[in-house]
Design brief:
- With 123 residues, the protein is mostly helical.
- It is 68% helix and 0% strand.
- It contains 4 helices and no strands.
- Helix 2 runs antiparallel to helix 3.
- The longest helix has 35 residues.
- The radius of gyration is 21 Å and the shape is extended.
Length: 123
């Protein structure tokens, strides 16, 4: 039923040629976000920046994300259109969703630590 409604009411796109893929932007975005994940996951176990691996990965992630943002503003078909954030409503909505997600994640982290401490003292 849903596919029928989409077929009836969604207009066809004007161009049949696909948009070019930004391979460099994709590589920079994935290496930057993957590097941050590699820093944040074992960071507390390896005493954050005393480990050469974590410091190097953090530098690599910072450079990759910096060049990703630069690349999004410089090329004609970026993988993420960061220029859309000039619209104040979209920028504020995106920031609000990000802050809400961070708050939810923070509560879950703090709750798990709290429950671990309280469960350990009861036994």
């Amino acid at each position: 039923m849903m596919l029928l409604l989409i077929w009836l009411y969604v207009p066809q796109s004007g161009s049949a040629t696909p948009r070019p893929i930004d391979g460099l932007g994709f590589l920079l975005m994935t290496s930057g976000s993957g590097g941050l994940q590699m820093v944040l996951s074992p960071g507390s176990q390896d005493d954050w920046f005393s480990s050469h691996f974590i410091a190097g990965t953090n530098l690599m992630a910072l450079l990759a994300l910096t060049f990703f943002v630069w690349c999004c503003f410089e090329i004609s078909h970026p993988i993420a259109k960061l220029r859309l954030l000039k619209d104040r409503a979209l920028a504020l909505g995106s920031a609000g969703i990000g802050i809400f997600g961070l708050a939810l994640y923070g509560v879950m982290v703090i709750l798990s630590i709290y429950l671990k401490i309280t469960r350990a003292t009861r036994r």
